[in-house]
């Protein structure tokens, strides 16, 4: 019997079989002082992986981190294709039958939003989620489905659509709802609807999310949301567990057209906002007059920690995107975000 000699391969050179991205990442990892914001963030991500390895995380912990990162990476890549389209996150019960009044009003609402150039993000399941997608149409719908043992199969509108994303974890799914939407819409639902709705409300109330319209919708004659709002007034607001006025961050409608108009009106002049060198910056689509700026300084001085509202004279201090936008800056006391919402409403009235 003749034994074949095993061919000995030469030692592989370092990184010889790594693709260009892997080689670049290793190069970034070696740098003590990475250049640019993106390179520094990649550097920090790689160091986090290194620390995870040093921390001897167990298999369950590694799977959690890996799955969360994969879910975020994939869903962000899908949404990136639709960056320019405004989107509303619509929540409601998966158990609402198609002959129910709330199903019908959700369907009309989805259509009203679509007519105004908005896209709809739902959980992708049956009931209210299906209704909003039927109204909006598959082209204008995203589904963020959660893998559950019951009642969360994708509906027929989004089932074969590439804009359907499946999540293992609620927290990554909720993060994508908030990150990719510019409005939160709540129809009658169960624990999940309240979870998602109160998270939006809490983040806006505390300034951890940018201002957004939060709209409650039910059918005419329903007392679903009226009972909740009244209960919150008679408990949280009465006992000052929330700031009087916080409930004004939510707006209740029983007309789908009026609800859609509420969302569109919020962005009629208001464009965006952010913290800016320890001040707060509002971007507006239209210039404001000296008289309007004086009105803001008179009626909203309670928002100021010091100084007054003023125009940002040098756009480059913010960014050079949309240089035509009006920019107002002020030293925000970070208390009473419902008053910031009132300020936005005033600028929209201009």
Please give the oligomerization state of what you see: single chain
CATH topology name of the largest domain = Rossmann fold
SS-based structural class?
alpha/beta
Q: Assign a percent range to the helix content.
A: 40-55%
Mean pLDDT: 91
The main pleated sheet reads as: 7 strands, parallel
Number of helices: 11
The first-to-last residue Cα distance is: 94 Å
How would you describe the shape?
globular
Main sheet: which strands, in order across? Answer: 4-3-2-1-5-6-7
State the CATH class of the largest domain: Alpha Beta
Q: What proportion strand?
A: 15-25%
Order of helices and strands: HHHEHEHEEHEHEHEHEEHEEH
CA-based gyration radius: 25 Å
Count of discrete domains = 3
Query: What is the strand tally?
Result: 11
Taking pLDDT < 50 over at least 5 consecutive residues as the criterion, the unreliable ranges are 1-12
CATH architecture classification name of the largest domain: 3-Layer(aba) Sandwich
Description of the molecule:
- With 350 residues, the protein is an alpha/beta fold.
- The protein folds into three domains: 21-80, no CATH class; 82-266, Rossmann fold (3-Layer(aba) Sandwich), CATH 3.40.50; 270-349.
- Helices cover 43% and strands 17% of the residues.
- The chain contains eleven helices and eleven strands.
- The strands form two sheets. The chain has a seven-stranded parallel sheet with strand order 4-3-2-1-5-6-7, sandwiched between helices. It has a four-stranded antiparallel sheet with strand order 8-9-11-10.
- Strand 2, helix 5 (128-136) and strand 3 (141-146) form a beta-alpha-beta unit.
């Amino acid at each position: 019997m003749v034994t074949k000699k095993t061919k000995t391969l030469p030692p592989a050179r370092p990184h010889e079989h790594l693709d260009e991205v892997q080689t670049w990442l290793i190069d970034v990892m070696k740098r003590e002082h990475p250049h640019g914001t993106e390179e520094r963030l990649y550097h920090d991500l790689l160091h986090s992986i290194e620390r995870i390895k040093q921390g001897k995380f167990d298999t369950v912990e590694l799977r959690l981190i890996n799955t969360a990162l994969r879910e975020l990476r994939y869903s962000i890549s899908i949404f990136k294709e639709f960056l320019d389209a405004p989107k509303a996150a619509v929540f409601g019960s998966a158990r609402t039958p198609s002959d129910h009044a709330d199903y019908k009003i959700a369907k009309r609402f989805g259509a009203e939003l679509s007519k105004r150039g908005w896209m709809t993000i739902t959980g992708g399941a049956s009931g209210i989620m299906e209704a909003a997608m039927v109204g909006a149409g598959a082209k204008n719908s995203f589904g963020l489905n959660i893998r559950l043992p019951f009642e969360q199969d994708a509906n027929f509108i989004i089932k074969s659509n590439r804009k359907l994303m499946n999540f293992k974890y609620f927290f990554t799914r909720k993060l994508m709802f908030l990150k990719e939407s510019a409005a939160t819409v709540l129809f009658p639902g169960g624990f999940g609807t309240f979870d998602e709705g109160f998270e939006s409300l809490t983040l806006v109330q505390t300034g951890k999310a940018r201002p957004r319209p939060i709209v409650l919708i039910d059918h005419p004659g329903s007392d679903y949301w009226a009972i909740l709002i009244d209960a919150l007034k008679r408990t949280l607001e009465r006992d000052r567990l929330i700031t009087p006025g916080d409930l004004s961050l939510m707006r209740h409608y029983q007309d789908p057209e009026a609800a859609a108009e509420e969302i569109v009106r919020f962005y009629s002049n208001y464009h965006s906002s952010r913290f800016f060198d320890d001040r707060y910056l509002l971007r507006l689509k239209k210039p404001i007059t000296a008289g309007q700026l004086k009105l803001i300084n008179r009626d909203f001085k309670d928002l100021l920690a010091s100084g007054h509202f003023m125009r940002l004279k040098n756009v480059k201090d913010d960014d050079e995107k949309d240089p035509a936008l009006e920019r107002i800056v002020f030293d925000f006391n970070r208390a009473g975000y419902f008053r910031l919402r009132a300020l936005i409403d005033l600028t929209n009235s201009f």
